[in-house]
Structure formats: C-alpha cells, structure tokens
Write a structure and sequence with these properties.
alpha+beta, Fructose-1,6-Bisphosphatase, Chain A, domain 1, D-Maltodextrin-Binding Protein, domain 2, 2 domains, eight-stranded mixed sheet, five-stranded mixed sheet, about 30% helix, about 30% strand, globular, binds 2,5-anhydro-1,6-di-O-phosphono-D-glucitol, binds manganese (II) ion
Length: about 280
C-alpha cells in the first residue's frame, strides 16, 4: 500500500506542474458522464495511468474520465478508482482543484474500500491519506517532498456550511435544513470544488458539505466510486459521518455501474444528525 501512496505523491507533483503550465482549454471529447473534457482532465488521467502502470500491486484502474475498467496487472491486489482532476472547470479562474483516489480490494463497493487519498492543488500542494489504522494523515509539499503536518480530527460540531446543487431544484425540506443552519450562525463556504470544500471543513474543525438529489438530478451529481466513497471513508476516519438521503452510510453503497452517483452528505456528528432529522430518516 505504501507504494501506492508514494506513487500518488509523484503523480501530485506532475499534475500540479501540468495545471501551472499547460493549456486550460477544452479537448474535443466528453467523458462517460457526458461532460466535456478539458485538456487538463485528459492529461491528468494520462499521468495517473502512466504512473500506476509500473505498480504491480495495482490490478485495475477505474477513472472518471474512462468508460470501463482498465486491467493493469493480473496478479495485482487492488483496484484504484480515481477522479484525476476534480473541479477542473475552476482551473481557468485560478481556484483550487484536486485529485481523488479510492483503493479497493475485491468487488467495487463501499465496504471493500481499504484506503483513500486526495490531493489539493492550491497555493500549496496538500495530500490527505486515510487508512483503517487511524485518523487521516495530512501532508504538505515543499520543494517536491511531502512533509507530515498531523492527524486530522473533526469536532462534534462545526461552523461551516457548503451546500451544493442547483438551489431552485432543491426539495423544500432540504432548503429548510440549509436555511436553519444559516439561522444558527453557520457560514457559507462553497467554492464549487468538492476537494477544497471538504478539505476546508476537515481542517477547520467541522461543518457540513451536501450534494443532494434534486429535481433535475435525483441521484445527485457526485460519483460513488471516485468521489463519494473515498471522502466518506476520510470523514468517518476523522470522527465524522457520511450518509445518503436515506441516512444510510455512504460506505455501504454498492454501485451497479462504475459511474453511478449518489446524493451525499459529509460532516461532523451534530450536522449529520440534524440532517437525518430534517430528512425524516432518524433511526
Ligand atoms: P468534476 O470536475 O470532476 O466533474 O467534479 C466537480 C464536482 C465537485 O467538485 C463539485 O462539488 C461539484 O461538481 C460542483 O457541482 P455544480 O457544478 O453542480 O456546483
Ligand atoms: Mn469530480
Ligand atoms: Mn474530474
């Protein structure tokens, strides 16, 4: 597993360089979710595939930017599911973007995730790694090397609210839930990139990030294997919770297709319990 983390560190430096130096425009292709791909999406995907091609313990790769499963090493143990460049449409306005990695052993479902990691490309490059052994580990790059900053723990209750999705398509009880948080004094923190938005909540002690199902996208926008499950694991390891609109742990998701999405809510315990009440799904 350490080989995979080392490879992610090397990938992070290369993708950061591409973001800082390459064309920010669109390619002439679209991905499996029907989204136009930026040249940086394609380049980041290529860099990740190239890096893992020499890591024998990686059996398969599943990318947000590719349709199916790419077989790498027949005798490998893990499947790495990844979003090469999350929030890529924010690169041309110079906001932070990220890469997300879910490492699975066996069938691709939440309970088989064994570790996750994400990289934030911002003013600095940061990396967070979560394993079953303990709290997420926070690193920051300096001159190409990642220095360990510390373990991350969420408070029981936070102050930040990051409500995703198109507001006019929210259902009434979701709108009431979000409004109630603001009425309690929560502050809006939403950049439109789930990596920096979830990273901020983790590092500033807590709050909630939501991307609900809406009338236009009933299953939400965020993809289970590459986005939802890796962050659900990160939040649970930090002492928080991550659930869907039924109050079910996102770690219990079983996608029927690699690109399946799910409504998702990640936060500290107080906010997630409040969400379950608002959605009428308290146990
Ligand atoms: P991607 O760039 O990989 O397609 O994903 C972007 C995601 C996520 O980062 C963010 O939270 C969400 O899309 C924002 O969606 P809206 O455009 O609906 O706000
Ligand atoms: Mn994404
Ligand atoms: Mn992406």
């Amino acid at each position: 597993m350490q080989t995979i983390f080392q490879t992610i560190k090397e990938i992070a430096i290369e993708i950061d360089h591409a973001i800082k130096t390459e064309d920010l425009g669109y390619s002439d292709s679209s991905n499996s979710s029907g989204e136009d791909q930026l040249k940086l999406d394609v380049k980041s995907d290529f860099l990740i595939e190239k890096a893992f091609a020499s890591v024998d313990i990686v059996k398969n790769l599943v990318s947000e930017e590719k349709e199916g499963v790419l077989e790498l090493h027949e005798n490998g143990k893990y499947t790495v599911c990844y979003d090469p460049l999350d929030g890529s449409s924010l690169a041309d306005v110079n906001l932070s973007v990220g890469s997300i990695f879910g490492i699975y052993e066996g069938e691709l479902k939440g309970e088989n995730l064994v570790a996750s990691a994400y990289v934030v490309y911002g003013p600095r490059i940061e990396l967070m790694i979560a394993t079953k052994e303990g709290k997420p580990l926070h690193y920051r790059a300096q001159e190409g090397l990642f220095n360990f900053i510390g373990e991350v723990t969420l408070n029981e209750k936070g102050k930040l609210n990051a409500p995703g999705g198109t507001q006019k398509n929210w259902c009434d009880y979701h709108k009431t839930f979000v409004d109630d948080l603001f009425a309690e004094g929560y502050r809006l923190r939403y950049s439109g990139g789930m990596v920096p938005d979830l990273h901020q909540i983790l590092l500033k002690g807590g709050g909630i990030f939501s991307y609900p199902g809406t009338s236009d996208v009933p299953n939400g926008k965020l993809r289970q294997l590459f986005e939802v499950i890796p962050f659900a694991f990160m939040y649970e390891q930090a002492g928080g919770q991550a659930v869907n609109n039924k109050g079910v742990r996102l770690m219990e998701l079983v996608p029927s297709h690699p690109h399946d999405t799910s409504p998702c809510f990640f936060g500290s315990n107080y906010e997630i319990e409040k969400l379950k009440e608002a959605y009428g799904v308290t146990a």
